[in-house]
Amino acid sequence: MDKGKTDHIVSAYDQELAELSSMILRMGGLAEAQLASAIKAITTRDGELAERVVAADAKVDALEAEVDEHATRMLALRQPMAVDLRAIVAGLKLSADLERIADYAKNIAKRSLALNQNPTLPAVHAVPRIGGLAQRMISDVLDAYARRDVPMAIEVWHRDEDVDQLYNSLFRELLTYMMEDARTITSGTHLMFVAKNIERVGDLATNMAETIYFLIEGKTLEERRPKGDDTSSYAGPDQG
Amino acid sequence: MDKGKTDHIVSAYDQELAELSSMILRMGGLAEAQLASAIKAITTRDGELAERVVAADAKVDALEAEVDEHATRMLALRQPMAVDLRAIVAGLKLSADLERIADYAKNIAKRSLALNQNPTLPAVHAVPRIGGLAQRMISDVLDAYARRDVPMAIEVWHRDEDVDQLYNSLFRELLTYMMEDARTITSGTHLMFVAKNIERVGDLATNMAETIYFLIEGKTLEERRPKGDDTSSYAGPDQG
Question: What ipTM was estimated for this complex?
Fold first, then answer.
């Protein structure tokens, strides 16, 4: 066998896999920035920033399409096995999750525009706290992916509980405001959806941690994921 | 070449592809039934039915894991090209979407339990209407998949607008109730999230229609998807 040629083939293949990782990381950086900007648009009531977030979502969508195409081409042209196959399938899943994260950021930005039309609710101060947690989950899960770092992926996976706890307390706080003063209902509702969007970003970062674990270890994270949103069964303070 | 052997290989391969379709359709049937039951649990205030929906979600998750495994094995063992490769990648996407649909059904079922603890709001009557639309989208998109029916996939894709319109009007109706009577705020909030979950089911059925189109045609649905949730920019009737 022509050793030189084999090396050449292997290295082109490795390069394609590295390119897939780079695309995911670039997409992840963008999704993380979108979330950060959307949250900033809420706290600073910056409508222009919100508009920029809404407009930039198309870039994330385009990157997802690129990842899909690149991954599908690799599946067709290389006959990937074992860890390489997992890396490609993981790439498809991670890019789908990142696209959804950016979509939630866009929705938060849109709601910030509506929030700007009403007075600020005090509860808005909880948004950067819960948003910051979710943002760090994305950032760290991307690091775990870049370094193929299993302990870090597991650590991020556990952090979803903190986001869920903050979400639950913010939800209750908003409900209380809305009951006390009907003028806060519209803004309160928007903030509830903002909080829910952030809570879902946390879920998606958790999904990504599971995908990364599977990519590296070749088996699923066995532990059951803690389910944190208990507001769906919250009957409200008007109950006995 | 041993023709008999080739036939044998091809037919095993086709059988694996058919099995993938069957798994997706079974999963789809279950997700559709879960949504129907969740909506029925809301209108009939049937707590036991809601509990059954919550419990049955694990079955959908298990089916998704099976699809993932089956599809990944096919990618590894066969070297699928063109339409076969698209069928496998589409299978992965469709099962992810169906898993999310079932997840929304579970969330609706959970919220029905909370709704049962407060008096019924009149707006609840809109839930089976919007829910029925979303359910028929799932049902028809699965038919389009089973029959590889492009016009039907496109038709479902367009129907997302109807769901979005109903969602927007229900959202406004709920907001009005909540402002008029603070005792309706808790239930109103839960119904808003129920409506939002159904609206997202419509989005997912639309996603599925796009995936099916791509699977059959080998190119993306060019038309821009109509974006229908405009409640995120709704400043409320308290605005001038």
Answer: 0.78
